[in-house]
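hi support,

uploading two proteins for the ticket. first:
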Amino acid sequence: MSLNPTAQVIIGAQFGDEGKGRMTAAYAAAVGRDGIVVRFNGGAQAGHTVVTPEGRRHVFSHVGSGTFAGAATFLSRFFVSHPLLFLKEWDTLIAQGVRPTVYVDPDSPVTTPYDMMINQIVEQERGANRHGSCGVGFGETLERHLRPNYALTVRELADAAALTTRLNAIRRHYAPARLARLGFASAAAQHQILLQSDAILEHFVADVRRFLDYVIIMDARTAIQGRQILFEGAQGLLLDQERGEFPHVTRSYTGLRNVLTLASEWGLKQLEVTYVTRAYLTRHGAGPLPHELPDKPYPGVTDATNLPNAYQGSLRFAWLDLDLLQRAISADLSDANPLSALTVYPRLAITCLDQLGGEKMRYYRGGQHCQATIASGVATVAEAVGIQDVRFGFKA
């Protein structure tokens, strides 16, 4: 079967938690088992909630959000594999009677328990100055990956002896040195027993064996051949490592950049890009949030996924800022080369409109706090960002 030259792309246009999972699931439902969800950034820190019409619910973290519809998953080289969290998610899906098909690029970086430890120790030590990490070791994995002696990819997992040697080097040399570079040498000493635990290392090696039993290591071109490609983004444009407000960013390109690279390599001709935003703003974790509110913006707002946790605290809320939204989408679309043979067609999806409970839609534009009926508000959002193709009404 030949490659379908057109791909769908789902990108969060805010600080994450916009409804990317629901949008991916909706597109996947249209193509079923012919679809393949490509994770092109981030890692297992994603939390994409999908609820099927019959009430089946899952928060997709590692596996693509098109799984309930029968779509396969491809974890690209821009995705950080996390065997520990993958197994947790795998077991949860199996318990629901779902067995995902997951392909993994051999060059996908791998998170170890030591990346998680460093991440969590540092965030705890920062106290009120936390960066907003969720503590699963994503950024620390990529930091370690910059050092060839300590890097670890999926292709290197099969040799258990070599894996053990690499893990020993990471826990004995890299982890203490990394904590010291960050200014937390005393914390490294306090957690020495945990860092040097043989049981943790051995358990991870066993988990890796299970991980390899469940995934299919395959190059991208073979995995995607003959399938409808659905690129599923993680986090949002306002958390992009270059365009967000440092240090409260994620260590990845959350917009089109990685997609454009893969699309060029795979010979795609058209990308239909859906930018997703809630009808209000949210942020889970530290960092700036324009027009932040002390409580929910509308009485009907609910979120069963973003529960308070030790690293990110509680979900925060704000009014939608149309100028911020326009700048984020415009900057992302500027990455597409207008002279390229690849066509980028943008759409906008507005989720959570059902949560307004009949109230008027409120937002900021030009520094002014405005309100309008939902229909008028949706039209204003579309006009502000310059996108005519608008989908709305989806739940997040």
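and the second one:
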Amino acid sequence: MIYSGEFVAESKPNPAIYLNTLQKLKVKPEQAISIEDSYYGITAAKAAGITTIAYKETRAEVDQSGADYLAADMLEIYELIKSLNK
């Protein structure tokens, strides 16, 4: 399944893209994990009730403080996801 922002009326930080995707996948917010790098993405995921990992942005100043976790790279994200699923 492919579901993108073109299917929702409002883009992030509106949580519609996350809420619609959860509904289509029949997944509860507490069963999902979001990986985001932007303030608006983090805000949208958190508004949908999803645990959120921020992929640390190093190219520009971005407020990622709303995320539940901050990870420096994909390996750290992978390890974090494994630890959350125990």
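thanks. also noticed: Strands lie at 33-36, 51-55, 69-71.
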